[in-house]
UniProtKB/TrEMBL annotation:
Signal peptide positions (record): none
Gene3D superfamilies with a match to the protein in the record: Glutaredoxin (3.40.30.10)
Cited InterPro entries: DUF6436, Thioredoxin-like_sf
Protein name: DUF6436 domain-containing protein
Residue ranges of domain DUF6436 in the record: 28-146
Protein source organism: Flavobacterium ginsengisoli
A Pfam match: DUF6436
Domain of life: Bacteria
Length: 171
C-alpha cells in the first residue's frame, strides 16, 4: 500500500531549486540523498542496493544519508557501517521536508545546480531485485547521461511513496 500523504504536506515540484543549507553548500556534483530509517523494514531491505549505488557512482555523485527515526538514537558510525561507506550522515528532518519526502526509504537526486531531478522509490520490489525497475539507478543514469534539460519520466510505482510514514516512521 502507498504511504498516506500527510495532511499538512507541502508538495515540492520536480525541477524546484532545493536549498539544503550548509550540508550541501559546496557540492558541485549531483547530490543523491538516501532517506533512511534503520527501524523501517523497507529501509533495511534496500541497504545492499543503496550500498551498491554508492560504490558504483560514488566518484560522480555526492551521496548523503538522512536518518529519520524518533524512537532510537543512532550514531554516524553505525549508519556508515550499515552501508559500508564513509559518506555524510545527517539526522535532520528539515531536509526531508525541503525535498518533499514523507516516508522511508526514499531517494532524492539533485542536479549540479541543486534542482530536484528525482524523488521516489528505489524499485517496485521491496528487495530491489527487479533490475527493470531500478528507478533510482535509472534516474542517476539519466542525469549523468543527459544531453538536454529534460527530466526522466517514470510510472506511478516510481514516484508514489511506499514505506514507513514520517515523522515517527511507523508502518
Amino acid at each position: 500500500m502507498p504511504t498516506p500523504i500527510p495532511k499538512n504536506y507541502h508538495a515540492i515540484a520536480m525541477g524546484s531549486k532545493i536549498d539544503l543549507g550548509p550540508c550541501c553548500a559546496f557540492d558541485n556534483r549531483p547530490i543523491f540523498i538516501h532517506f533512511f530509517n534503520p527501524e523501517c523494514p523497507c529501509s533495511r531491505f534496500n541497504v545492499p542496493h543503496v550500498s551498491a549505488l554508492i560504490k558504483k557512482y560514488g566518484d560522480q555523485i555526492n551521496f548523503k544519508i538522512v536518518v529519520l527515526n524518533k524512537q532510537k538514537n543512532f550514531t554516524i558510525d553505525e549508519i556508515q557501517q550499515k552501508f559500508d561507506a564513509k559518506i555524510p550522515v545527517y539526522f535532520d528532518e528539515a531536509i526531508a521536508k525541503k525535498c518533499g519526502v514523507f516516508s522511508t526509504p526514499q531517494a532524492v537526486l539533485l542536479d549540479q545546480s541543486h534542482n530536484l531531478y528525482y524523488r521516489g522509490n528505489y524499485n517496485k520490489t521491496r528487495y530491489c531485485t527487479d533490475t527493470k525497475s531500478n528507478y533510482a539507478q535509472m534516474a542517476i543514469d539519466s542525469l549523468l547521461g543527459r544531453k538536454d534539460n529534460h527530466n526522466p519520466s517514470f510510472n506511478a510505482l516510481a514516484l508514489r511513496a511506499y514505506g514507513c510514514s514520517l515523522p515517527k516512521c511507523t508502518k
